[in-house]
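User: I'm putting together a small comparison set for a docking exercise, and I want a reference complex before I start. The sequence is below, and the ligand is pyridoxal-5'-phosphate. Could you produce the 3D structure with the ligand included, as structure tokens?
Assistant: Of course. I'll restate your input first, then give the structure tokens for the complex.
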Amino acid sequence: MLSYDEMKRNIDNIEARIQAACKRAGRDRSEVTLIAVSKTNPLEAVHTANDCGLKVFGENRVQEMCLKMDETDRELEWHLIGHLQTNKVKYIIGRTAMIHSVDSLKLAQEIEKESAAKGVITPVLIEMNVAEEESKFGVIGDAVYELVREISELKHVSLKGLMTVAPYTEDPESNRKYFRKLKDLSVDINSKNIDNVNMSVLSMGMTGDFEVAVEEGATHIRVGTGIFGARNYEV
Ligand SMILES: *Cc1c(COP(=O)(O)O)cnc(C)c1O
């Protein structure tokens, strides 16, 4: 686990690069939320990041997110960014600020059911597989339009935008076309003025490519290793 000074240095570095990317793109820094992806890191690391000023955290597994939410005594915001199984939905409704990974009507309907039962409205994003990678979750191509219409009918689910996990690459420029595609898709869906649909969120960009994502319009970037250091999956 990184010390406060080490993590502060990482966060200052990421912050400077976000600001530079915003400047290049003529965007205001306030348009971009940095989500610190804390998966596999202990709660102490989350608290260190919080001491450095971060309040928004992302987890890709329900059980790990719930453990951290249960154990912390701090006011933090939690985003579920990984694949979500319908049988786990009940554990996070009313506790997560946003679910980034909706990729089926079945999942959206389960979120609707649990949200209605708890009397809350859950903000969600549709996860797109823009590069059409076989190994990835997410909706491919025009199928998104039907899913948007179906989700718009759900009263306790609020569709806020789109999310993608771009291909792993050493060359961030190679993902620019995918980020641009996600942005274009979100503008197109928004132009249809569907009730209960407001495409204001674009969740894209990770440690390796967040600057390109910010240049292409990301409103939420998800940065893990750039903040917490390399993940250790063995512990
Ligand atoms: C792990 C993860 C990230 C963060 O990845 P880094 O490369 O460590 O920044 C972002 N998004 C999702 C969906 C993830 O699972």
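The chain has a mean pLDDT of 97. Residues 37, 39, 60, 81-82, 165, 206-208, 222-226 surround pyridoxal-5'-phosphate (CB under 6 Å).
User: Thanks, that's exactly what I needed.
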